[in-house]
Amino acid sequence: MDESATPGSSAPFTRSATEPLRKAHCFFCQKDDGQDLFTVRTENAGKVLRQAVEISQDQVLMTRLSNAISLSDAHAIDVRYHKVCWTRHVFHVLRDDACNQESSQMALPMQIPCLIELINLVDFHTQNKAYLPMDVLETTYISMLGGRDEAQKHIPTLTRQWLKDKITNCEVSEAERQKKTICSLLS
């Protein structure tokens, strides 16, 4: 069975099309080429294996794992592996998935400095009793970020309400901080 078969191939994937799990061989490559084979010995390793197989969506590995008494119990079927195969099919899959999740949740590098600068501008203008419409503030913030394309990458999604909440929350906290400073000076 060619493990490089793609899910988009014309023939549907069936269990019978896969090689049966040979327990004396590596779970991933199903070879015994003289290299040391290690056995899954802990419940955690079994869970990590299941998680990596689910993320990779490798149908061959999913089928092999489904032969276990319990999908999360790779120890029960005595899964054996080469270190190189474990690294490729488990460690790298989990690492890449974690990196993708982190990068999708990271704020733009300029998001925080731009927001601080906008709040400082608002603070300065409101001290001079200037009226600042929200559309102007939003346009200014988007310009600071680098334009509409950069604003679309904003985490969380940039909305006028989000921007208004950030500005008003900062102004309140700044006013409270000044009030505490004044009270501490008077005491």
Blueprint of the fold:
Elements: E1 38-39, H1 43-56, H2 59-66, E2 80-81, H3 83-105, H4 111-127, H5 134-145, H6 148-151, H7 160-186
Antiparallel strand pairs: 1-2
Can you characterise this structure?
This protein is mainly α and 187 residues long. It has 2 domains: 15-105, no CATH class; 111-186. It contains 7 helices and 2 strands; from the N terminus they run E-H-H-E-H-H-H-H-H. It has helices at residues 43-56, 59-66, 83-105, 111-127, 134-145, 148-151, 160-186; strands at residues 38-39, 80-81. The chain has a two-stranded antiparallel sheet. The termini are far apart.
Give a short synopsis of this structure.
The protein is mainly α and 187 residues long. It contains seven helices and two strands, in the order βααβααααα.
Q: Rg from C-alpha positions?
A: 28 Å
Instruction: Give the termini separation.
Output: 82 Å
The spatial strand order of the largest sheet comes to 1-2
Q: Structural class, judged by helices and strands?
A: mainly alpha
What low-confidence regions span 5 or more consecutive residues with pLDDT below 50?
Answer: 1-8
Q: List SSEs in N-to-C order.
A: EHHEHHHHH
Count of alpha/pi helices: 7
Name the average pLDDT: 74
Give the strand content. Answer: under 5%
Helix content: 55-70%
Number of E-state strands = 2
The total tally of domains equals 2
Overall 3D shape = rod-shaped
Largest sheet: 2 strands, antiparallel
Overview features:
single chain, 187 residues, mainly alpha, 2 domains, two-stranded antiparallel sheet, 2% strand, rod-shaped
